[in-house]
Here is the input.
Amino acid sequence: MIDITNNSKNLTLVAIDIAKKSHDALIQFANGHSVQMKIENSLQGYQRLWVECCKHPSVVRIGFEPTADYHRNVAYWFQQQGAQCHLVSSLSCARAREMLYQTWDKNDRKDTSVIMYLLNQGISRPFFDPLVHQTGLPRLC
Here is the structure.
């Protein structure tokens, strides 16, 4: 069977566990090297993560669970930088965590590895922001 979702040899995958004050991130470069980091929920934190992602020239695909509205800022900024942003279902994460770790308990590092697993398997959907594309907004006369 051919994996059509990750057939690019030049793909950097980033899994982010989004929280209110800081985010945990796991970066997997095309050469297989991985970097774990914690970034603050600020422009400086996003820039620090982006600089780390750009150390190896490649397409950057970022995956995250939808978390209240905190994921919208993250997705917007990274899409403006040229990254592909993907949503990973919370239910998929819960089931994958149970499968991979035989437990339902969770922590931030475990969550990033579960999101990374789902990204590698192609179990995610592209993030679409209706506000950016101005769809779903009421029309004013």
The mean pLDDT is 81. Helices lie at 43-53, 70-81, 90-101, 108-121. The longest strand covers residues 11-17.
